[in-house]
Amino acid sequence: MPQISVNRLQPGIFVSLSGHGWMKHPFLLNRFCLSSERQIQAMREMGIVAVEWDPARSTVAPLPESPAGSASAPEPDFGCAALAGMQDEKRVRLERVRQQREGLARRERQFEQQAVVAGDIFRSLLARPQDAHRHACALVGGIVENLLGTENMVIHLVSQKSREGGLAFHALNVMGLSLMLGKTLRLPDEDMRHLGLGALLHDVGKQDIPPRILRSTQRTAPEEEFYRAHVGYGIKAVSALRALPVPVKNIIACHHEHCDGSGFPNRLVAERIPRLARIAAIANRYDNLCNPFDLREAKAPAEALRQMFRNEAARYDRQMVELFIKTLGVYPPGTFVALSNGSVGMVVETNAADLLHPLVMLYDPDIPRSEALLIDLRDAELSIESALSAAKLPVETVEYLAPRGRLDYLVEGSRN
């Protein structure tokens, strides 16, 4: 970008301070559009005489250059006060970012704890089925109560220590995404609990399938038949839970059925597939597209939704798919985005009440990843210009924003 004298700046000029170091200036962002004279005065106080500017992103032209030798009456120097004020504002904003980062870390711990509980449930189903049932109901019940007791939903992207999510992480994703869609569909309390429990247990039968077959992307006919048997193994695994409601069992039995009759094991068609199973099938497919065993095959959120809507529409309840897409939003968590200031970020949190203004983590090589900026677009003078493909981004950008490659979700209720 070309440079311009600070004396030619005015509000509306888009500037970059990347060369000055993020920690050394009082502004929250390295790249931004000037909005006040106070910002320009703060730059002067820092001793900055010239900055880079972007004519394409500026809304006004620079001030004309002062004629050589021209003299003007001295002005009072308000730079010190302006700089101090900007530094105070930055401290306030950074404190908010710190609180947001702590909130994300708290949710990550919550998700990991839920994964431990889910893993224990799966392992104890045969030996202690009633204990497993009780713990599963408690896990689902807490999440459902949180969702039903609030007006909106917030969908959080959760960063895990391991790239390998395993059965528990997939189960939690499908449960959370299913309940998200269930809330949008305004399901009653009992249906929500059945949906959550069935989604949590939908793949429990995979514990009896060899990992080699589960991970294979090119199964032989016998291997595919063995893989499909996980549905039957799942029903067998919960057979000791005599109090398990039929709708829960039907989610386990029917989460691979397709509305066009191409699914398994019973090739059910359309309305013959139980409603809750149709919901879980959508959540299951979405998570499998985003988090395949081979993460090199992973779809970006928007790509996964596009494939389900355009290429696989006949398989799923169309109205439910449309509501699923609407609920996740234009920019689902995990989406790489280009922002209006030229920065690249990743959506880490979306709120159903304002889908166009999510919480975004910014890529900035000047800032350690552990201290990465989180920008709530509802508060910032920024907007999303487009979604980006990870394949077209530099490796360092992708690894900064999504070091583990997985997309795990925690869905919570919100009163905001």
From TrEMBL:
It comes from the Bacteria. InterPro entries: DUF3391, HD/PDEase_dom, HD_GYP_dom. Residues 147-340 form the HD-GYP domain. CDD domains: HDc. Coiled coil: none annotated. PROSITE patterns: HD_GYP. This is DUF3391 domain-containing protein.
